[in-house]
Amino acid sequence: MLRLLGWHTRAGEIGLRLFLLNVLWLLYTLRGGVVLGAFPATAAVHAVLRRDVINPGDTGRASLRAEFAAAWRAELRSANLIGYTLTAAWVLLLVEHRLLTSAGAQGLAAGVAAVLWFAAAVLFLACASVWMLAVHFDEGPLATLRRAAVLVLARPLTAIGTAVVLAVTLCVYYVVPGLIPVFGVAVPALLTSAWLWRSGVLPRPAQEPHPSPVPAHSQV
């Protein structure tokens, strides 16, 4: 009974933390005028979750809002460069697919369409893991995008697993849309990050000082 009560208490604590992270994501997305706030807020969610894994019992950490705000400011430029580079890639793929569809996918066009579908799959795999890579490794946005691409090519099972976790979560959101305003980005971030941690592609730093959420120096 005590163990069951402990599980319920722990689940409640996790649920509350995810809800608060989602609220902070919304607030800081608006703070950046949405177009400049959404990607840094997404990176900040992953930065907080990363520190939860590395230092789960660290009582010297700053408050959740202070830690989130510090991560948001630290990732403001890099996260927007990563996010809008990926957005541009998606727009390019969609435009190319629309042009091929309107022209009729026959002969060479059919082969190009197959290449576009493959490129879209690779891009989705990279998007599923890029934010935790961005906050875990101390490197620029181009290096982070390159690392995400290398992960897809060198560790395809890990990348596919991360993408499946993300896809299943999005499907659950589609079936139960009431979860979106409550947990939003936080739950997909938690689950995909947990998969990456279990895969071993995210090495643990020796021990981080208090309470900065700045990315650690390490390599895959």
TrEMBL record:
Signal peptide: none annotated. The chain crosses the membrane at residues 25-49, 81-100, 112-136, 148-168, 174-197. Keywords: Membrane, Transmembrane, Transmembrane helix. InterPro entries: DUF624. It comes from the Bacteria. The keyword Transmembrane applies. This is DUF624 domain-containing protein. It comes from Occultella aeris. The lineage of its organism: Bacteria, Bacillati, Actinomycetota, Actinomycetes, Micrococcales.
